[in-house]
Design a protein that fits this description.
By secondary structure, the protein is of the alpha+beta class. It is built from seven helices and six strands, in the order ααββαααβαβββα.
Length: 353
């Protein structure tokens, strides 16, 4: 009988096992990272589906109109708070939610004696000025709309987990039934509606292809019904406002302060997007640009309007990461709700998570 022998583990054997483990980890790490990103994208697409349902419910209650935060007849008063107040009294204030004491929380409150005071301003769909990233299109989670989600300004539905800074700032307040802006500050939603679609189509060049100041005519701010979308499967409705998942850094050094990269700032950006037909997918900057070039080559003009006061660079195009990225789809869509932000889905660039 051969006696059994106990083999000790040698240094060489240990090194072989370690090398094998390192190789195995190297194989799985990119996959794990990809799954994490995929999960974030999927969660964002699910958020947009819920927001799409809320859009439909809002329209059902308000005769088809879109959520805009301003009176439809504001254009008849030159877009002025003062002129509107003289004729109608106070313009409805912007309500974000209710505090724990039941008092309304928001900003731009305070309209006294039928006039607008220094504390009151109108929150228009967007302003065609240097602070164009402010406006109703960024306040998807205001009280008038969040009532159709879960009734909270700070609700996970309004924040993409891949949008790390806003998500991190808002998440401690998820689930709270009341709003305390002194504690939380104002944290914009990760998502933005299409401001072009929130104006009367003539503002974005319907008929003339030239921008028309909404303050100059009565219907400038009249909210078009969602049913007016001429290309519902091609017109974006709500989109991730930031460039997520593949951006070069958290903040954009081209801005003062901690401002993130926007969705149109990089050729690799592929924001999760809700369309007017209720579908969701990722619409890449490259796809939007190629569609714009195809239309232009066919003599059909441009898919986004370069004649607004924001100029040929459009929506902060001068602050883009790379010089290749050149689009302001979604924000400055030519003809607004009557326009489109991409061409036939048959030309769509594969963009699954």
């Amino acid at each position: 009988m051969n006696p059994s022998r106990h083999h000790g583990t040698t240094i060489v054997e240990i090194l072989v096992v370690v090398a094998a483990l390192v190789a195995l980890l190297a194989t799985f790490t990119p996959i794990a990272g990809g799954l994490s990103c995929d999960n974030q994208v999927q969660q964002s697409l699910d958020n947009l589906r819920r927001i799409g349902t809320a859009h439909d419910q809002y329209a059902g209650d308000w005769n088809g109109r879109q959520f805009t935060l301003v009176a439809d007849d504001l254009g008849a008063f030159s877009g002025s708070c003062f002129f509107y107040a003289e004729a109608n009294g106070c313009h409805p204030p912007l309500l974000l939610g209710h505090g724990c004491d039941g008092a309304p929380e928001g900003y731009f409150f305070g309209c006294g004696q039928g006039q607008c005071d220094s504390a009151f301003q109108l929150v228009k769909p967007m302003v065609f000025a240097p602070n164009a990233f402010d406006g109703a299109f960024r306040l998807v989670n205001a009280a008038g709309f969040n009532a159709y989600v879960n009734g909270r300004f700070y609700d996970p539905t309004f924040y993409a987990s891949g949008d790390t800074i806003p998500y991190g700032n808002a998440s401690p307040f998820f689930g709270k039934p009341c709003l305390d802006l002194e504690a939380s500050g104002l944290v914009y939603s990760s998502y933005a509606n299409s401001p072009a679609a929130m104006f009367d189509p003539e503002v974005m060049g319907a008929g003339t292809f030239q921008y028309k100041n909404p303050n100059g005519y009565a219907d400038g701010y009249k909210s078009p019904p969602a049913s007016a979308a001429a290309y519902p499967e091609l017109k974006t409705r709500t989109i991730e406002h930031q460039w997520l998942y593949s951006n070069p850094s958290t903040t954009n050094p081209n801005f003062a302060g901690s401002v993130p990269w926007f969705f149109n700032h990089g050729i690799e950006s592929r924001p999760a997007t809700l369309f007017f037909d209720g579908s969701v997918r990722r619409l890449s900057v490259l796809e939007a640009m190629q569609a714009d070039k195809r239309l232009s080559a066919q003599g059909g003009g441009s898919l986004w309007n370069r004649t607004t006061p924001l100029g040929s660079n459009g929506y902060y195009g001068a602050q883009a990461w790379d010089w290749v990225a050149d689009t302001s789809f979604h924000v400055l869509t030519t003809k607004g709700i009557l326009g489109r932000d991409t061409m036939s889905p048959a030309f769509a660039i594969p963009s699954e998570p």
